[in-house]
Design a protein that fits this description.
single chain; 242 residues; alpha+beta; L-fuculose-1-phosphate Aldolase; seven-stranded mixed beta sheet; globular; disordered C terminus
Length: 242
């Protein structure tokens, strides 16, 4: 079943996030099939840099995909965030390298860049899987219960960290979620560098809101540059035979 621009942009999003160093052989990105929809597009279990439109599967909010291709183990991240947050139209889950250290120390990830104003509303929360799965889990979100716990940690925010694992970034559009995932990584790198020099001055919530309103309105500008850097070969429609 084809989903037009959603499929085309989701393939591009996978490639952009790899190119920007947010995803590598692991991680994933999804898009809801329109405002209010109870279905979303997410690739089958595949390295994101290899995703084509033919690899995209429609999932419901239980994380159940259409078809018989192998889904991602952590599809429940996406399903439960969409269930809890009707305002969210896209989700990125990554293990971006500058962000992960902030998930395992007592220093919160905070906005130091105006490009990351979406992080300024509060110190970025950290999901602690031990509260749900004990102290012998593999740290993966492989059930609806764990997905719900992560969604509760995210709450109404834009980003949540996952202790020893990675993070999630969400947006009101696919392009916004990609933008937030990229600039969360950039901000984490800048914050760590600033902390090595001294005590950073963080954006206030008011500064963050104003910066996000100004810069966040230009997400398409960033998308255009990033999109030009990646090549998306012509592929069969989503759901076609492989």
């Amino acid at each position: 079943m084809a989903h037009g621009n959603d499929a085309h942009d989701l393939v591009a999003a996978n490639r952009i996030l790899v190119d920007q160093g947010v995803l590598d052989a692991f991680g994933h990105v999804s898009v809801r099939l329109g405002p209010g929809s109870d279905r979303f597009l997410l690739s089958r279990n595949l390295a994101p840099g290899l995703v084509t439109a033919a690899d995209l599967l429609v999932h419901d909010l239980d994380g159940t995909p259409e078809g018989d291709q192998r889904p991602y183990l952590e599809r429940f991240i996406h399903a439960e965030i969409y269930r809890a947050r009707p305002d969210v139209l896209a989700v990125v889950h990554s293990h971006s390298p500058a962000v992960v250290p902030f998930s395992v120390v007592d220093v919160p990830l905070r906005a130091v860049l105006h490009m990351a104003g979406f992080l300024a509303a509060r110190p970025t929360p950290v999901f602690e899987i031990r509260e749900y799965a004990g102290d012998a889990s593999d740290l993966l979100i492989t059930s609806a219960e764990l997905g719900r716990g992560l969604a509760r940690t995210l709450d109404t925010g834009a980003v949540a960290l996952m202790r020893g694992h990675g993070s999630v970034a969400v947006g009101a559009s696919l392009r916004e979620a990609v933008y937030r995932a990229v600039y969360t990584e950039i901000n984490a790198r800048a914050q760590a560098e600033a902390m090595a020099l001294g005590t950073p001055t963080y954006l206030t919530p008011g500064e963050g809101a104003s910066a996000d309103a100004t810069v966040g309105s230009q997400v398409d500008r960033a998308w255009g540059v990033w999109r030009d850097r990646v090549s998306t070969p012509a592929t069969p429609e989503a759901g076609s035979a492989r």
